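Hi everyone,

Forwarding the result from last night's run.
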Amino acid sequence: MKQPWNICIYVMGLALGAIAGHTDAARAAADPEKDALKQEMRELKERLGQLEQRLTEKDRAAEEAAAAPAAAPAKEVVGIPDWVKSIELHSFLSLGYVYNFNDPGSNINTQRFFDARHNSFRVDDFEFSLLHAAKDPGSVGFRFDLDVGSSIPRVIHSVGLFENGAVDTTTGHVDFEDIDVRQAFVSYNAPLGNGLTVDFGKFITHFGLEVIEGWPGYNDNYSRSYDFAFAIPFTHTGLRATYPVSAKLSLMAMVVNGWDAVDDPNDAKGYGGQVGVFPTEGVSLYFNYLGSPEPQGTFGAKNDSDWRHLFGFTWVMKPLPGRLPDLTLSGTFDYGFENNFDVSATKQDDVQWVAAEGVVRYDFTTWFYLALRGEWMDDEDGVRIASCLTGTGCAGFPVGYSGQAVWAITLTPTFKIGEHLVVRPEFRYDKSNEHVFEDEAGGRFKESQTTLGVNAIYSF
């Protein structure tokens, strides 16, 4: 159907044609000089006809477009939510090798856990971590650390996690021994004062100088001290609250299942805390406590009255910040005691242990430092120091072993290669007042043990 403007153009064309015809007749009779006007009228008529044709084609195209189905609206591009962007991803890989000059028959380094294998290259640990810190008052966060490897995961397992108490009678290995959830907790930063942070879940202990190494940091030495391996716990599961009173004082309190326990073995809980004091720049002091019933064997099952107590003091300081700013002195002292059931005498005895260590570190350059550690542990009651890992085939302590006092010295040069890679060789000498270190001949033991090791770390 023609549009109104098309009709107008058509009428104008007819009118112009009539005028042109009339003009032609008039000119023939009266004014032959107006031929130019006639020609102009003809050209105008042709141009109007072309315009009418173009408008008709546009009308047809519009009608076809109106009859076609409507096009789907463009999809809205959805960006990554801000809460996903705020999640941090970290990783840590530790590889190691240790040679024991005793050449033990079991190929196990006595009284060593994270570096327990003699003359074997090892994937000590691979850590994968997801983190969203509860930094601001009123915010909620979480942390999840997963460990896979041949050394660290099997040692730090908490009782009840992955049902790790089940032993394969064919291989003698504990199920899921090479994987561990190191930490898994949620956090809430309560808007109280300077911010009260509450953590609920499984987290690393507050005791000791050394840490279970990971992406946040590593120790000054490759091998772990007796204090770290035997005197203190690794992890806790429960509730923890931390409050920074000021720049010079922080407080922490917790209620947990006890020592290295996801499943509580009794009906009582453990209670612990920490006071952090920072008197001057470069000086950090930590006072720690933990008390909890820790059942021993069948006698201790569901026993809520016999408690284990642990007291600790840890320090990190730069004694000469003006003259020797690259010199760091650090150390720890831990004392524990408990009521322990003596199966052979069918009675309970009070037992105790003491451990101490000190580390001198000097950073010669930004890429090289040297650390010297001296340590000592008294476990004369024989309740804390173990010979080796469960299920590894270690020869164990000699018959009649009842306890020992042991000391060790460790020298570790550390090289930083680039931003993420660290390589550190290490020399260590252990000496006990008992013959506890396995010798190359099966069933024989010595008072000392010397090892050389090397460790490579990559983290981001």
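The chain is about 15% helix and 40% strand.

Cheers,
N.
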